[in-house]
């Protein structure tokens, strides 16, 4: 499970996917398959979450990696490049962006 903490020594990547409601389930299935069978087994992978909006036009993916280089190495693999080409064909757009946690809040 992803942990959001200001001082965490990890790389956070948030990827947004834009698609039509007609392709949302296909994109989600491709992402679930990628995480279950490939991404989660890559060196440096910590955790991830997939979120879909109620209109089924956007998916947000939150993933955490030990290091930026681990995420980049996963993206460069032949398997992930092939998977991303197929996902891209189902989307209007998708964009992974690396972030640093600046602040985190809880009710306590």
TrEMBL record:
**Classification via InterPro entries:** ABM_dom (IPR007138), Dimeric_a/b-barrel (IPR011008)
Q: Which domain of life is it from?
A: Bacteria
A Pfam family the protein falls into:
ABM
Do the record's keywords include ATP-binding?
Answer: no
What is the species listed in this Swiss-Prot or TrEMBL entry? Salinihabitans flavidus
Q: Which UniProt keywords apply?
A: Monooxygenase, Oxidoreductase
Molecular function as annotated in GO: monooxygenase activity
Instruction: Write down what this protein is called.
Output: Antibiotic biosynthesis monooxygenase
Tell me which residues make up the ABM domain: 11-102
């Amino acid at each position: 499970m992803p942990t959001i903490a200001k001082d965490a020594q990890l790389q956070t990547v948030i990827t947004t996917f834009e698609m039509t409601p007609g392709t949302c389930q296909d994109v989600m299935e491709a992402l679930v398959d990628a995480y279950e069978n490939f991404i989660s087994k890559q060196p440096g992978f910590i955790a991830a979450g997939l979120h879909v909006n109620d209109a089924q036009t956007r998916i947000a993916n939150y993933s955490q990696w030990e290091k930026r280089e681990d995420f980049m190495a996963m993206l460069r693999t032949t398997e992930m490049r092939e998977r991303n080409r197929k996902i891209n064909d189902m989307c209007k757009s998708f964009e992974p962006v690396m972030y640093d946690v600046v602040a985190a809040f809880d009710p306590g």
